[in-house]
Task: inverse folding
């Protein structure tokens, strides 16, 4: 397996085969074959575009929702995670260690819609013991892509 190839594709999935070949010291045919093998083996699961939602007039609201779950016998957290990830609002689901069990990343049009999704959908799942919602106020970096053009601190100053 070519880890360097995977890292390059992780940074920019739009690299052309000839550019990847040059960066890897290989040829286009070999790179194309390796990518096809990585895809068929399930190591490459898809290609995504990182969107800076804050630049759109119809910006969406994102939230990280912590779920404390009572795992089901013989299934652990798998069945609950599968149920949660079927919702259109859900972007990602992670099994976590620490104070909560599942981390769910959600995107919707408004804060109210996220709140209603949590209240009416997630918290009503039998195995869900509790939820904690954290709204994303600003994204600085996502999937290794820097989203802020300047790193200036825009919080202002405090006068005493």
Result:
């Amino acid at each position: 397996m070519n880890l360097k190839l995977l890292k390059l594709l992780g940074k920019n999935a739009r690299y052309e085969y000839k550019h990847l070949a040059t960066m890897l010291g290989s040829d286009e045919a070999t790179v194309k074959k390796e990518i096809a093998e990585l895809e068929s083996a399930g190591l490459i699961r898809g290609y995504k575009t990182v969107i800076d939602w804050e630049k759109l007039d119809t910006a969406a609201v994102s939230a990280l929702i912590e779920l404390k779950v009572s795992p089901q016998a013989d299934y652990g957290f798998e069945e609950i995670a599968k149920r949660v990830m079927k919702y259109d609002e859900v972007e990602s689901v992670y099994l976590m260690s620490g104070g909560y069990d599942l981390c769910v990343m959600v995107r919707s049009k408004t804060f109210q819609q996220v709140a209603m999704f949590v209240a009416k959908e997630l918290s009503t799942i039998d195995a869900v013991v509790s939820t904690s919602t954290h709204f994303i106020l600003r994204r600085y970096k996502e999937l290794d892509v820097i989203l802020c053009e300047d790193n200036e601190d825009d919080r202002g100053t405090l006068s005493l």
Remarks:
- The longest strand covers residues 61-69.
- The longest helix spans residues 28-40.
- Helices lie at 3-11, 17-24, 28-40, 78-85, 111-122.
- The chain is about 30% helix and 20% strand.
